[in-house]
Every structure is written in C-alpha cells, then in structure tokens.
C-alpha cells in the first residue's frame, strides 16, 4: 500500500493484478486499484475531478482526465473516508500510475489539488 497526505486529505492505494486477455490481437494486462480518500482535515470537502498519468514498461503514457470518480463526486465530512475501486489495462506487465484529485473546501470555497502518490502495477510473473 502507498499513502500520501495533502492538505489533510490522506490517499491510500492498494493494487491487484487481475489477469491477461487478448484484445485486437494484442495481450493486455488488467489491474485493479482500490483507493481510500480519508478526510483528516476539519473542513468538509468534495472531490470534483481527477487526472491520471498511466505509464507502462514500453514507455507509453496515457493521460486520463474527468469529473469525479466512477461517476460520483463524493462529499467527504471530517473524519470520513470515501473508498472506491477501478482498473486499467496495460500492454506490458509492469507500469505505474500517479495523478491528483481536484477538490473544493466547503469552508473556504477554494479549490485545491490532492496528490495521488505513484503506485506500481506489476504482474506477479514479471517479478521473477
């Protein structure tokens, strides 16, 4: 598990290799990641958007941006945690993701960025 705290928002990430499959005559490696967003601040916050940089061992980078996470823009009260799972496909058995969430602080009405730490995506057989 990797963790990072930015302005009182703690991000924790756990990853899981889900397997391989063929798509368009190419092998793809499927990974699942589960993210916990814990509000350790004294203010109510809302996650508005996210930006991901997804890299694989073949030096390919995919940038993914959009509103919310898995169709939601959660409001997170102080002391509460929002948890969700998602996934990605790579064309190599090793990669990494990093990024940030844009959030709004309901007390100050200001937007701020919360760093998502770099986390590795590694198929177990690639470690031998």
UniProtKB/TrEMBL annotation:
Pfam families: DUF525
Positions of the ApaG domain: 3-128
InterPro entries: ApaG_domain (IPR007474), ApaG_sf (IPR036767)
Protein name per Swiss-Prot or TrEMBL: Co2+/Mg2+ efflux protein ApaG
Source species of the chain: Jejudonia soesokkakensis
